[in-house]
Amino acid sequence: MNMQSFKNVTVLITGASAGVGAACAREFARLGARLALVARGEEALSAIAGELSQQTEVLTVCADVADLQACDAMLASVVERFGPVQVLINNAGLHHRGDVRVRSAEDIATMVDVNLRAPLYLTAKVLAGMQQLGTGAVVNVGSLAGRAPLQGAATYAATKAGLRSFTYGVADEVRELGIAVGVVSPGPIDTGFIMDHIDEVEDIVYSQPMSSAEEVAVNIVRLARGERLEISMPWLGGKLTTLSYLMPSLRRGLRDRLYAIGRRNKNKYRKA
User: Fold this and answer.
1) Is 245 a residue of the active site?
2) pTM assigned to the model
3) What is the 8-class DSSP label of residue 211?
C-alpha cells in the first residue's frame, strides 16, 4: 500500500498533546487528514485542537492508553465521529528512568502497559476496519533503545524492542491486505520527554545527534505512506545499534567513549 493522499483520511494519534504527537498532528493536518487526538492532559490537548481546528476536523479524547476499557471507549468515539480508523500512530510513551533494581515493580508494569500492551491492543482493534477498507497504516514510535540494550533503561528498551519486533511481524501478516505497518526508531529528540529530565537521562543517550519532533513527524508520514518498514534516526545511530546488537563486545568497548561524548553534549544543552 502506498497512501499518496491523506485528504479526509482519519488519523488517530496517541500521546498527541505535545512533542512528537503534536508535531504529527500538525503535519497530518497540513495534509488534510481528519484528526483523532488522544492524550491524558486535557489542557494541552485542547490547546493543540484549538490550533488545528481551523485547518481540519479534530476530535479530542482524554484517555490513558494503559487502561484498555478507556481504549475501547476512545475507539468507539472515533468511529462514531469519523468512521473506521485509517491511520494509527502509536506514539504515547512512558519512561520511569533508572536501573531495574531501583524502580518499583509497578513502575515497570506501567511502562509495559503504555509502551507495548497499548500499541498491540490498539493495532489489533483497528486492523479489521482497515482490512474492510482495503487500505490503512499503522506506525509505531520506537527508539534506538529498542535496537540495542541500554543500561539504566532496560525496561524502556525492552518495550521498544518488543514494539519493533511486533511491527516487523504484523507488517508481513498484512502486506497483501493493502495495510502498511512501520516503525520509526529515533535517538534523542528535542522535546520535554528528555530535555525536561536531562539530569535523569543516561549520558549515552546524548551521544547521538538530536532530532526535532518535526523531523520525526515527517518520517512518520513517510512510513504511513508505506515507503519504508523502519526509519532510524539518525541514520548512523541506526547502523551503530545494529553493530552493537550483533557484537556485544563492541557495544561494551564503545560504552565509555559514548558516555563521555554524551556528558559533553549534556553540558552544551544545559548552557544553551
Assistant:
1) no
2) 0.93
3) B
